[in-house]
Amino acid sequence: MALARLVDVHTHVYLPRHCTPSTNFSPLTRASSRTTIYWDRDEKIKFMDRHGIDLSLPTHGSISSPASEAQTLASQLNDDLQQYCADSPSLTPSLKRLYGFGLLPLVPEISTTALLEAIEQISKLSYLKGIIMGTRGIGKGLDDEALDPVWAALEKAGLVVFLHPHYGVDSQAWGDKNNGHVLPLALGFPFETTIATTRLILAGVFDRFPSLRLLLAHSGGALPQLSSRLASCIDHDPVVASRLKHDARWYLGKLYYDAVAYGPEELGFVSDVIARSQRYETGSSVPTNTAVDRTLGSGRMLFGTDHPFFPPLQSTEKWASVVENLQAIDAVTGWGQAEKDGVRGGNALSLFNLV
Amino acid sequence: MALARLVDVHTHVYLPRHCTPSTNFSPLTRASSRTTIYWDRDEKIKFMDRHGIDLSLPTHGSISSPASEAQTLASQLNDDLQQYCADSPSLTPSLKRLYGFGLLPLVPEISTTALLEAIEQISKLSYLKGIIMGTRGIGKGLDDEALDPVWAALEKAGLVVFLHPHYGVDSQAWGDKNNGHVLPLALGFPFETTIATTRLILAGVFDRFPSLRLLLAHSGGALPQLSSRLASCIDHDPVVASRLKHDARWYLGKLYYDAVAYGPEELGFVSDVIARSQRYETGSSVPTNTAVDRTLGSGRMLFGTDHPFFPPLQSTEKWASVVENLQAIDAVTGWGQAEKDGVRGGNALSLFNLV
């Protein structure tokens, strides 16, 4: 049996080239521009060592440069990230400790050719195993048919798409009380992911590209809890009732989810929702009133930290945000050692073909 | 043992006085103005009979009249609803088949006195057992300190507050594809409830009014799935980290949830989230890594239909939306007959003191 590894699939890096005014990069405007935690590889490795993380897959943030600059910037950042990983320590003779998610120049008015060239570039960069994707596409969202060639190329290249929110939803809805960043972070981010994924389902993207591998940030946000409601709303709406090949809940079993939900009940529930997908296989004879086997769902869930965000307010040896997610995995009712080891690292090693 | 009853706590009524241009009532603008399903009591009873529903608690929609008219309109509508219930058939010698949620004139520039008078009126109307509440309060949301006297009066009167969304969230986020009403209904409504409840928690309303009884539409929307993330975000934000008396997850165990979530995994998860609240009791010795007993959570969950919304697209004997919610209750893993009977009706009879 292979050594159990701890692998972080949700961790951010903002390399120096990213952090210039022209990229409109927002996290640094909130944080001290003097901190090195956003790009320094040694800090990332130190964080990993402190929490027992063997291997991490840092992801770029999105870019929002003008189309004329975006292709070059994305290409350079992908090369930067390749180098950042290549220079990382070795975990085994055949594995480094860092791999990464590259980025596409997904900005308004970009050409399809530029997007396809970026996918080709990333496919050839040995340490890049997927791409990060925001929710706006090239300006009209991810359900834009203009992205079909992109999904096709990503599917063909076998690159994992890490869907991560960036803007939040409807800041007016937060009201005028000072609640710090709690509402946009705790609710706005997951809502954004939920909407984007739902729009992908409704647009038939998973029907057209069934082998596309999409990894959802923050355990899919609110999508699991709203998925039966979504299925019912679709069934009751004449505009969409006959559009899709499957019940909405079927698609949730084809997705991947980070395990960044901070609680064991949440993680167990997400694995239930993945596992029940098979009930909605066309022509399935799986009855809808039997208990689901949540061990079947755990294989699509993957540990993450969201580093360097959620630092502790006071100095501590370990970060509470990381400890919470590890404890949550360990405490899921109905998961055995194999499922927990899988979520902690085995599933990531398989998904990203890291052997 | 008492006869097991089926009680619908989530069902709408828009009485004729409500359906005039000055009330800005929106559902009827979507539907045929000729239909009587929105206000006809016989249609409500027929629907109940067809689905085996013994007793229902219809709720008004919100009103958005100018303050000068709102108090009178609310008062008249409350009297109307009292009569609507009083004239309903008897279920037992001491029970009618219809009870209701009244409404407060919650509009901008209304006086506190007018709101308190409405609560006093509703308290005296024997068939009204609570009030409906939207998410905007008197214009600044439910975390507005101006509402403190209202919460105090509602708490004292023992009226259940049914928190129901009305506006959805951020229609721009739905994009420009025609997906019917799916996105605002399946996602926007639950998001609205989630935000409003979170703002109530953050504002300390449940700390100040611990006996307030709040019933959340659509099983709390996305709040259960995002509640551990919410707790973590609060703990990591210096603005709010020390503000509340309890971990955010504690408050979820003090709320009530309709069982309108369309799937057994969702309902089971909501009951887990309610049950785990006790872990976060101040000074609790309940370890956070033991399995929760979800039977403990079921007592705060109550069957509902959302009638007359979600009608079947084709004529059927029973409505799929109702059948789905009944099947979901029946299929929750870990709930026994007592829990299922409770969610179907026993919990509602207790909550509303219908004996």
In short:
The structure is a homodimer of 355-residue chains. Chain A has 355 residues and is of the alpha/beta class. In chain A, 39% of the residues lie in helices and 11% in strands.
Describe the structure.
The structure is a homodimer of 355-residue chains. In chain A, α4 links the parallel β5 and β6. The longest helix of chain A is centred in the middle third of the chain and has 21 residues. In chain A, the strands form three sheets. Chain A has a six-stranded parallel β-sheet with strand order 5-6-7-8-9-10. In chain A, strands 1-2 form a two-stranded parallel ribbon. Chain A has a single domain, classed as TIM Barrel, CATH 3.20.20.140. Chain A is α/β, with parallel strands linked by helices and 355 residues long. Chain A has twelve helices and ten strands. In chain A, α3 runs parallel beside α4 and α4 packs parallel to α5. Helix content of chain A is 39%, strand content 11%.
Question: What is the oligomeric state here?
Answer: homodimer
Q: How many distinct domains of chain A? A: 1
| Backbone CA Rg of chain A | 20 Å
Percentage of residues in strands of chain A = 5-15%
Overall SS class of chain A: alpha/beta
Order of helices and strands of chain A: EHHEHEEEHEHEHHEHHEHEHH
- For the termini of chain A, the CA-CA separation is 13 Å
Q: What's the CATH topology name of chain A?
A: TIM Barrel
Mean pLDDT level of chain A = 93
Poorly predicted parts of chain A? 28-34
Count of helical regions of chain A? 12
CATH architecture of chain A, please? Alpha-Beta Barrel
Largest interface: A-B, 80 and 79 residues
Pfam families (chains A, B): Amidohydro_2
Protein name (chains A, B): 2-amino-3-carboxymuconate-6-semialdehyde decarboxylase
Family (chains A, B): Belongs to the metallo-dependent hydrolases superfamily.
GO molecular function, one term (chains A, B): carboxy-lyase activity
